[in-house]
Amino acid sequence: MAGMQTWTDRKIEEIVADLLRAGVAISALVVFVGACFYLARYGHTPANYGVFNGEPTDLRNLHGIIHSARQLRSRGVIQLGLLCLIATPVARVALSIWGFAAEHDRLYMIFTGIVLIILLYSLLGSGSAF
Amino acid sequence: MNILEFTLLLAMGSFLAGLLGSLTGLGGGVVLVPLLTIFFKVDIRYAIGASLVSVIATSSGAAAYYVKQGFSNIRIGMFLEIATTLGALGGAFLAAFVSTRALAIIFGVMLLYSAYLSRKPRTPQERNLPPDSLATRLRMNGSFPSEEGVRNYNVQHVPAGFGLMFGAGALSGLLGIGSGAVKVLAMDQAMKIPFKVSTTTSNFMIGVTAAASAGVYLNRGYIDPGLSMPVMLGVLAGSLLGVRILMKAETRILRLVFSLVLVLLGAQMIYQGIAGKI
User: Fold this and answer.
1) Domain residue ranges in chain B
2) What span, in angstroms and rounded, lies between the C-alpha atoms of A88 and A76?
3) Which ipTM value was assigned to this complex?
4) pLDDT tens-digit profile of A76-88?
5) Interface contact flag, A122 B212, Cβ < 8 Å
Protein backbone atom coordinates (compact mmCIF):
# COMPACT_ATOMS: atom_id res chain seq x y z
CA MET A 1 0.00 0.00 0.00
CA ALA A 2 3.00 2.32 0.20
CA GLY A 3 2.80 3.11 -3.52
CA MET A 4 4.14 6.32 -5.10
CA GLN A 5 0.76 8.08 -4.81
CA THR A 6 0.77 7.79 -1.03
CA TRP A 7 3.98 9.81 -0.70
CA THR A 8 3.12 12.97 1.15
CA ASP A 9 5.08 15.69 2.92
CA ARG A 10 4.02 14.07 6.15
CA LYS A 11 5.43 10.70 5.26
CA ILE A 12 8.73 12.20 4.15
CA GLU A 13 8.88 14.15 7.40
CA GLU A 14 8.44 11.00 9.43
CA ILE A 15 11.34 9.32 7.66
CA VAL A 16 13.40 12.49 8.15
CA ALA A 17 12.56 12.45 11.87
CA ASP A 18 13.86 8.90 12.21
CA LEU A 19 17.05 9.80 10.36
CA LEU A 20 17.64 12.78 12.65
CA ARG A 21 17.08 10.73 15.75
CA ALA A 22 19.47 8.03 14.54
CA GLY A 23 22.15 10.58 13.57
CA VAL A 24 22.01 12.30 16.95
CA ALA A 25 21.99 8.99 18.85
CA ILE A 26 25.00 7.59 16.97
CA SER A 27 27.05 10.76 17.35
CA ALA A 28 26.18 11.12 21.05
CA LEU A 29 27.24 7.51 21.62
CA VAL A 30 30.58 7.94 19.82
CA VAL A 31 31.26 11.21 21.67
CA PHE A 32 30.41 9.54 24.98
CA VAL A 33 32.78 6.61 24.36
CA GLY A 34 35.54 9.07 23.43
CA ALA A 35 34.73 11.10 26.55
CA CYS A 36 35.33 8.09 28.83
CA PHE A 37 38.79 7.51 27.32
CA TYR A 38 39.52 11.21 27.40
CA LEU A 39 38.59 11.74 31.05
CA ALA A 40 40.43 8.59 32.15
CA ARG A 41 43.55 9.83 30.43
CA TYR A 42 43.51 13.61 30.91
CA GLY A 43 41.04 14.03 33.81
CA HIS A 44 43.66 15.27 36.25
CA THR A 45 45.57 17.67 34.05
CA PRO A 46 44.68 21.35 34.43
CA ALA A 47 42.05 22.78 32.06
CA ASN A 48 43.18 25.73 29.98
CA TYR A 49 41.07 27.09 27.14
CA GLY A 50 41.88 30.73 27.79
CA VAL A 51 44.53 30.84 25.08
CA PHE A 52 43.61 30.01 21.50
CA ASN A 53 46.16 27.73 19.84
CA GLY A 54 43.90 26.03 17.31
CA GLU A 55 43.59 22.28 17.00
CA PRO A 56 46.45 20.12 15.66
CA THR A 57 46.09 19.40 11.95
CA ASP A 58 45.05 15.77 12.47
CA LEU A 59 41.87 17.01 14.21
CA ARG A 60 40.97 19.46 11.45
CA ASN A 61 40.11 17.20 8.51
CA LEU A 62 38.31 13.96 7.79
CA HIS A 63 41.42 11.99 6.94
CA GLY A 64 43.29 12.98 10.09
CA ILE A 65 40.26 12.47 12.34
CA ILE A 66 39.61 8.94 11.04
CA HIS A 67 43.30 8.08 11.38
CA SER A 68 43.36 9.41 14.94
CA ALA A 69 40.10 7.67 15.90
CA ARG A 70 41.32 4.34 14.52
CA GLN A 71 44.27 4.47 16.86
CA LEU A 72 41.69 4.98 19.62
CA ARG A 73 43.09 8.37 20.56
CA SER A 74 40.37 9.81 22.76
CA ARG A 75 40.31 13.26 21.15
CA GLY A 76 40.11 11.66 17.72
CA VAL A 77 37.14 9.49 18.74
CA ILE A 78 35.25 12.52 20.12
CA GLN A 79 36.00 14.49 16.96
CA LEU A 80 34.66 11.58 14.87
CA GLY A 81 31.41 11.73 16.84
CA LEU A 82 31.20 15.48 16.21
CA LEU A 83 31.72 14.84 12.49
CA CYS A 84 28.77 12.40 12.52
CA LEU A 85 26.72 15.14 14.14
CA ILE A 86 27.70 17.72 11.49
CA ALA A 87 26.84 15.16 8.79
CA THR A 88 23.31 14.62 10.17
CA PRO A 89 21.67 17.81 8.76
CA VAL A 90 23.54 17.25 5.48
CA ALA A 91 22.08 13.74 5.24
CA ARG A 92 18.69 15.22 6.00
CA VAL A 93 18.93 17.63 3.07
CA ALA A 94 20.08 14.81 0.78
CA LEU A 95 17.17 12.64 1.90
CA SER A 96 14.71 15.47 1.20
CA ILE A 97 15.80 15.55 -2.47
CA TRP A 98 14.80 11.92 -2.72
CA GLY A 99 11.52 12.72 -0.98
CA PHE A 100 10.66 15.55 -3.38
CA ALA A 101 11.57 13.25 -6.27
CA ALA A 102 9.06 10.71 -4.98
CA GLU A 103 6.46 13.50 -5.03
CA HIS A 104 7.50 14.53 -8.56
CA ASP A 105 8.18 18.05 -7.31
CA ARG A 106 10.89 19.28 -9.70
CA LEU A 107 10.96 22.84 -8.35
CA TYR A 108 11.80 21.75 -4.82
CA MET A 109 14.28 19.14 -6.01
CA ILE A 110 16.20 22.05 -7.54
CA PHE A 111 15.97 24.23 -4.40
CA THR A 112 17.08 21.37 -2.17
CA GLY A 113 19.88 20.52 -4.61
CA ILE A 114 21.17 24.10 -4.34
CA VAL A 115 21.21 23.87 -0.52
CA LEU A 116 23.06 20.54 -0.70
CA ILE A 117 25.68 21.99 -3.08
CA ILE A 118 26.28 24.96 -0.73
CA LEU A 119 26.63 22.58 2.23
CA LEU A 120 29.02 20.28 0.39
CA TYR A 121 31.01 23.25 -0.81
CA SER A 122 31.38 24.40 2.80
CA LEU A 123 32.46 20.95 3.95
CA LEU A 124 34.58 19.85 1.01
CA GLY A 125 35.57 22.86 -1.03
CA SER A 126 36.12 25.89 1.17
CA GLY A 127 39.10 24.90 3.25
CA SER A 128 39.27 21.23 2.28
CA ALA A 129 38.12 20.08 5.71
CA PHE A 130 37.66 16.63 4.23
CA MET B 1 40.54 23.42 38.00
CA ASN B 2 41.41 20.10 36.38
CA ILE B 3 39.79 18.73 33.23
CA LEU B 4 37.45 16.36 35.08
CA GLU B 5 35.96 19.15 37.23
CA PHE B 6 35.86 21.51 34.27
CA THR B 7 34.03 18.93 32.13
CA LEU B 8 31.41 18.16 34.78
CA LEU B 9 30.72 21.83 35.56
CA LEU B 10 30.52 22.64 31.86
CA ALA B 11 28.17 19.72 31.19
CA MET B 12 25.84 21.05 33.92
CA GLY B 13 25.96 24.59 32.52
CA SER B 14 25.29 23.28 29.01
CA PHE B 15 22.38 21.21 30.29
CA LEU B 16 20.77 24.41 31.64
CA ALA B 17 21.52 26.28 28.39
CA GLY B 18 19.93 23.50 26.33
CA LEU B 19 16.91 23.41 28.64
CA LEU B 20 16.38 27.20 28.47
CA GLY B 21 17.05 27.25 24.74
CA SER B 22 14.53 24.61 23.79
CA LEU B 23 11.90 25.91 26.23
CA THR B 24 11.95 29.41 24.77
CA GLY B 25 12.51 28.33 21.17
CA LEU B 26 15.54 30.61 20.85
CA GLY B 27 18.19 27.87 20.84
CA GLY B 28 21.00 27.34 23.34
CA GLY B 29 23.83 29.09 21.47
CA VAL B 30 22.98 32.61 22.65
CA VAL B 31 23.47 31.49 26.26
CA LEU B 32 26.42 29.16 25.64
CA VAL B 33 28.91 31.56 24.11
CA PRO B 34 28.74 34.07 27.00
CA LEU B 35 28.63 31.22 29.53
CA LEU B 36 31.85 29.78 28.10
CA THR B 37 33.71 33.07 27.70
CA ILE B 38 32.61 34.83 30.90
CA PHE B 39 32.34 32.04 33.46
CA PHE B 40 34.71 29.44 32.05
CA LYS B 41 37.26 31.92 30.65
CA VAL B 42 37.33 30.14 27.29
CA ASP B 43 38.70 31.97 24.23
CA ILE B 44 35.76 33.18 22.12
CA ARG B 45 36.94 31.21 19.06
CA TYR B 46 36.81 27.89 20.92
CA ALA B 47 33.46 28.97 22.38
CA ILE B 48 32.02 29.64 18.91
CA GLY B 49 33.18 26.22 17.66
CA ALA B 50 31.60 24.38 20.62
CA SER B 51 28.39 26.41 20.33
CA LEU B 52 27.97 25.56 16.63
CA VAL B 53 28.21 21.87 17.46
CA SER B 54 25.58 22.28 20.18
CA VAL B 55 23.23 24.10 17.78
CA ILE B 56 23.27 21.11 15.43
CA ALA B 57 22.58 18.76 18.35
CA THR B 58 19.62 20.82 19.64
CA SER B 59 18.13 21.30 16.21
CA SER B 60 18.34 17.66 15.14
CA GLY B 61 17.19 16.35 18.53
CA ALA B 62 14.15 18.61 18.83
CA ALA B 63 13.25 18.51 15.11
CA ALA B 64 12.70 14.77 15.29
CA TYR B 65 10.00 15.55 17.86
CA TYR B 66 8.34 18.55 16.17
CA VAL B 67 8.28 17.03 12.70
CA LYS B 68 5.99 14.23 13.88
CA GLN B 69 3.45 16.82 15.02
CA GLY B 70 3.15 18.30 11.52
CA PHE B 71 3.96 21.92 12.40
CA SER B 72 7.14 22.58 10.44
CA ASN B 73 6.82 23.40 6.74
CA ILE B 74 9.70 21.74 4.88
CA ARG B 75 9.10 23.72 1.67
CA ILE B 76 9.39 27.10 3.38
CA GLY B 77 12.40 25.81 5.33
CA MET B 78 14.21 24.43 2.32
CA PHE B 79 13.64 27.49 0.14
CA LEU B 80 14.87 29.87 2.86
CA GLU B 81 17.85 27.58 3.57
CA ILE B 82 19.34 28.77 0.27
CA ALA B 83 19.64 32.25 1.82
CA THR B 84 20.81 31.14 5.28
CA THR B 85 23.49 28.70 4.10
CA LEU B 86 24.95 31.30 1.71
CA GLY B 87 24.88 33.86 4.53
CA ALA B 88 26.49 31.39 6.93
CA LEU B 89 29.37 30.68 4.55
CA GLY B 90 29.99 34.41 4.15
CA GLY B 91 29.84 34.97 7.91
CA ALA B 92 32.22 32.11 8.67
CA PHE B 93 34.79 33.51 6.21
CA LEU B 94 34.40 37.03 7.65
CA ALA B 95 34.93 35.78 11.22
CA ALA B 96 38.64 35.20 10.55
CA PHE B 97 39.13 38.91 9.79
CA VAL B 98 37.09 40.38 12.66
CA SER B 99 38.79 41.01 16.04
CA THR B 100 37.60 39.06 19.08
CA ARG B 101 36.71 42.34 20.81
CA ALA B 102 34.47 43.31 17.92
CA LEU B 103 32.91 39.83 17.97
CA ALA B 104 32.17 40.20 21.70
CA ILE B 105 30.49 43.57 21.17
CA ILE B 106 28.45 42.33 18.17
CA PHE B 107 27.43 39.37 20.29
CA GLY B 108 26.38 41.55 23.21
CA VAL B 109 24.20 43.71 20.96
CA MET B 110 22.71 40.53 19.48
CA LEU B 111 21.87 39.30 23.01
CA LEU B 112 20.14 42.54 23.97
CA TYR B 113 18.20 42.45 20.70
CA SER B 114 17.15 38.84 21.32
CA ALA B 115 15.98 39.88 24.80
CA TYR B 116 13.89 42.65 23.25
CA LEU B 117 12.41 40.26 20.68
CA SER B 118 11.54 37.65 23.25
CA ARG B 119 9.64 40.27 25.30
CA LYS B 120 7.91 41.98 22.44
CA PRO B 121 4.19 41.17 22.46
CA ARG B 122 3.06 39.61 19.22
CA THR B 123 0.54 41.61 17.24
CA PRO B 124 -2.72 39.71 16.76
CA GLN B 125 -2.34 38.14 13.35
CA GLU B 126 -4.73 38.81 10.56
CA ARG B 127 -5.65 35.25 9.81
CA ASN B 128 -7.21 35.29 6.38
CA LEU B 129 -4.67 37.06 4.21
CA PRO B 130 -5.16 36.67 0.46
CA PRO B 131 -2.67 34.35 -1.24
CA ASP B 132 0.50 36.04 -2.50
CA SER B 133 1.30 35.14 -6.13
CA LEU B 134 5.00 34.37 -5.56
CA ALA B 135 4.32 32.27 -2.48
CA THR B 136 1.63 30.40 -4.37
CA ARG B 137 3.97 29.68 -7.26
CA LEU B 138 6.52 28.41 -4.74
CA ARG B 139 3.83 26.22 -3.16
CA MET B 140 4.55 27.56 0.34
CA ASN B 141 1.03 27.95 1.64
CA GLY B 142 0.11 25.21 4.06
CA SER B 143 -1.86 24.17 7.08
CA PHE B 144 -1.12 23.02 10.60
CA PRO B 145 -3.06 21.50 13.52
CA SER B 146 -4.32 24.22 15.91
CA GLU B 147 -6.72 24.08 18.87
CA GLU B 148 -9.67 24.87 16.57
CA GLY B 149 -8.75 22.15 14.08
CA VAL B 150 -6.62 22.38 10.97
CA ARG B 151 -5.79 26.00 10.10
CA ASN B 152 -4.66 27.14 6.65
CA TYR B 153 -2.24 30.00 6.09
CA ASN B 154 -1.04 32.07 3.14
CA VAL B 155 2.61 33.10 3.13
CA GLN B 156 3.39 36.80 2.36
CA HIS B 157 6.44 38.92 1.40
CA VAL B 158 8.76 36.14 0.25
CA PRO B 159 11.61 38.46 -0.96
CA ALA B 160 11.75 40.32 2.39
CA GLY B 161 11.86 37.02 4.27
CA PHE B 162 14.61 35.73 1.97
CA GLY B 163 16.71 38.86 2.58
CA LEU B 164 16.31 38.65 6.37
CA MET B 165 17.31 35.00 6.24
CA PHE B 166 20.56 35.92 4.50
CA GLY B 167 21.33 38.23 7.43
CA ALA B 168 20.39 35.51 9.92
CA GLY B 169 22.78 33.12 8.17
CA ALA B 170 25.64 35.63 8.24
CA LEU B 171 25.15 36.22 11.99
CA SER B 172 25.11 32.48 12.53
CA GLY B 173 28.38 31.96 10.68
CA LEU B 174 30.02 34.94 12.37
CA LEU B 175 28.96 34.15 15.94
CA GLY B 176 28.48 30.39 16.09
CA ILE B 177 24.81 30.57 17.02
CA GLY B 178 21.69 29.30 15.29
CA SER B 179 20.23 32.84 15.19
CA GLY B 180 16.82 31.32 15.75
CA ALA B 181 15.43 34.65 17.00
CA VAL B 182 16.12 36.37 13.68
CA LYS B 183 14.71 33.43 11.71
CA VAL B 184 11.51 33.44 13.75
CA LEU B 185 11.27 37.23 13.28
CA ALA B 186 11.62 36.88 9.51
CA MET B 187 8.92 34.22 9.22
CA ASP B 188 6.53 35.49 11.88
CA GLN B 189 6.70 39.25 11.30
CA ALA B 190 7.71 39.60 7.63
CA MET B 191 6.18 36.54 6.01
CA LYS B 192 3.12 36.38 8.32
CA ILE B 193 3.55 32.68 8.97
CA PRO B 194 1.75 31.42 12.13
CA PHE B 195 4.01 31.49 15.20
CA LYS B 196 4.07 27.77 15.86
CA VAL B 197 4.96 27.05 12.25
CA SER B 198 7.65 29.75 12.40
CA THR B 199 9.38 28.46 15.55
CA THR B 200 9.35 24.81 14.52
CA THR B 201 10.50 25.57 10.97
CA SER B 202 13.24 27.80 12.43
CA ASN B 203 14.30 24.93 14.66
CA PHE B 204 14.65 22.69 11.61
CA MET B 205 16.64 25.36 9.78
CA ILE B 206 19.20 26.27 12.46
CA GLY B 207 20.90 22.86 12.25
CA VAL B 208 21.38 23.09 8.49
CA THR B 209 22.68 26.67 8.78
CA ALA B 210 25.12 25.66 11.52
CA ALA B 211 26.36 22.70 9.47
CA ALA B 212 27.22 25.12 6.64
CA SER B 213 29.67 27.03 8.84
CA ALA B 214 30.86 24.05 10.92
CA GLY B 215 33.07 22.74 8.09
CA VAL B 216 34.90 26.05 7.86
CA TYR B 217 35.39 26.22 11.64
CA LEU B 218 36.56 22.61 11.90
CA ASN B 219 39.18 23.30 9.26
CA ARG B 220 40.39 26.37 11.15
CA GLY B 221 40.86 24.37 14.35
CA TYR B 222 38.10 26.14 16.33
CA ILE B 223 36.32 22.89 17.26
CA ASP B 224 38.09 21.40 20.27
CA PRO B 225 36.96 17.85 21.18
CA GLY B 226 37.63 18.21 24.92
CA LEU B 227 35.53 21.36 25.12
CA SER B 228 32.79 20.41 22.64
CA MET B 229 32.17 17.01 24.26
CA PRO B 230 30.53 18.19 27.54
CA VAL B 231 28.80 21.03 25.68
CA MET B 232 27.23 18.72 23.10
CA LEU B 233 26.14 16.03 25.56
CA GLY B 234 24.86 18.57 28.09
CA VAL B 235 22.91 20.67 25.60
CA LEU B 236 21.42 17.58 23.98
CA ALA B 237 20.16 16.19 27.30
CA GLY B 238 18.84 19.62 28.32
CA SER B 239 16.98 20.23 25.08
CA LEU B 240 15.39 16.78 25.05
CA LEU B 241 14.06 17.42 28.55
CA GLY B 242 13.00 20.96 27.55
CA VAL B 243 10.91 19.75 24.63
CA ARG B 244 8.97 17.51 26.99
CA ILE B 245 8.46 20.22 29.63
CA LEU B 246 7.38 22.73 26.98
CA MET B 247 3.92 21.18 26.78
CA LYS B 248 3.04 22.00 30.41
CA ALA B 249 5.12 25.04 31.31
CA GLU B 250 3.87 28.61 31.26
CA THR B 251 5.81 30.17 28.39
CA ARG B 252 5.17 33.76 29.54
CA ILE B 253 7.23 33.25 32.71
CA LEU B 254 9.92 31.29 30.88
CA ARG B 255 10.31 34.09 28.36
CA LEU B 256 10.63 36.64 31.16
CA VAL B 257 13.38 34.65 32.89
CA PHE B 258 15.13 34.05 29.60
CA SER B 259 15.11 37.70 28.56
CA LEU B 260 16.50 38.78 31.95
CA VAL B 261 19.36 36.30 31.55
CA LEU B 262 19.99 37.62 28.04
CA VAL B 263 20.13 41.25 29.21
CA LEU B 264 22.65 40.42 31.96
CA LEU B 265 24.88 38.38 29.65
CA GLY B 266 24.62 40.90 26.82
CA ALA B 267 25.62 43.84 29.02
CA GLN B 268 28.52 41.80 30.39
CA MET B 269 29.75 40.83 26.90
CA ILE B 270 29.65 44.42 25.66
CA TYR B 271 31.49 45.64 28.77
CA GLN B 272 34.22 43.02 28.35
CA GLY B 273 34.54 43.72 24.65
CA ILE B 274 34.98 47.45 25.27
CA ALA B 275 37.33 46.90 28.23
CA GLY B 276 39.39 44.53 26.08
CA LYS B 277 39.20 41.60 28.51
CA ILE B 278 38.30 39.01 25.88
Assistant:
1) 3-275
2) 19
3) 0.84
4) 999 999 999 999 9
5) yes
